[in-house]
Specification:
The longest helix has 32 residues. With 410 residues, this protein is an alpha+beta fold.
Length: 410
Amino acid sequence: MKNLKKTRRNNNKHNKKQKGGILLKMEASKAFDFFVNNSEIELFTNIGSYGIILQATLNKNVESPYEMFGPNDFKDFKQPVKYILIKLVSLNPDKDEEEEEEWYLEGKSKQTDSTDNFIKEVNVQTDIFFKTMEYLQPLCPAPVFSEIMTDKSKMENFLITLKNNTSEQKTKKIFDEMIENIDLRSIPSLGVFGMEIAGGYYTMHNYYNICKTKNEVAHYESCEQMAKLQILNLALKTGYSQNDFHRSNLLVNPNYEGFYKDLKGKVLIIDFGLASKLSSDNLNQIRENYQKENYSEALKTFETLKRSDGAIIKEYPTYYGWVYNNAESFTRRDKLQRRSDSEYDEKMHELLEKEEEATDERIKYFDEKHQLEPDKYPLLPLSNAIKNSFFQGMITGGKKKKNRRTRRRR
């Protein structure tokens, strides 16, 4: 088994700090490089407007430089990270917001984003992760690394490394095309954003196509209701609207256990480049309808919003209308039957009940483990002190509080 002893020996000062919700065994850039160099790279999605998302799967018998702070099914508290997503974005630090700079990949036009927008995306996702990880089920993947590459040689060498670590001819061709765009200066600089992900995730778009091919769309329909609830949770817990909730920006793991009681499935949100804070009026409207269990009505608030680039969400019903039950959105999901708002509300209410039950079980589990190993297992919800001072290895849990097995409903 490959080990990290040499790197650890030279980076002891980094061993105690956690970055982005992931326990690091070395400095962040070295951990990322180690993971990439010892992984199989494959294309995850090429639907994004500014770039692509890759999945890196750590090779067998290689010790991961990351450990997850949080469980899949909470049977084990610390688990090695075996997968990360890598988002690559074309950036121009001198871009005028009015400019439409284009480059091409697989014959499709893509845009070049501003450096400020990329920095905002990384910061927003980090903010959301920490604000929603209190019960060890954050709404988005944990950021593990980000960098803006401006040196042409460095960009090309990085893409060559990725290319050398993929066996997919299609993906190799994509890297060749990106290198060509760098040579032409169509990609002036490259934003690289790494984030932890468990295995078994698909974009909602891809999972629908899988279910459609197999003639099995019932669970996909349930996953859409999970995704709607995550969009509401994002608003209520953080004040953000993701604003670009087409189905390739929602990830679903149809076989995930532990997020809902006795039901498989979990949804994560990615791509916060167009996110914005909700106004107090919009947030109150969402909250009031949510408390009345009028979830579909709460989701209709998102139809009225503008993305951070000024685009109006209701002008793109085929992309975003699935969130607020717009009839046009079903042209992209032709195997689904459009149901009434009340039917969707009933399903979302059932999901919320199952989420509450699973969360209470998780709290009970960590309470019991904390009694046996108080320095390893923290109490839930996580305190701010724990969030802000994670340690590689042992995690201080603090003093046990009483009456933690039930929670106020949202």
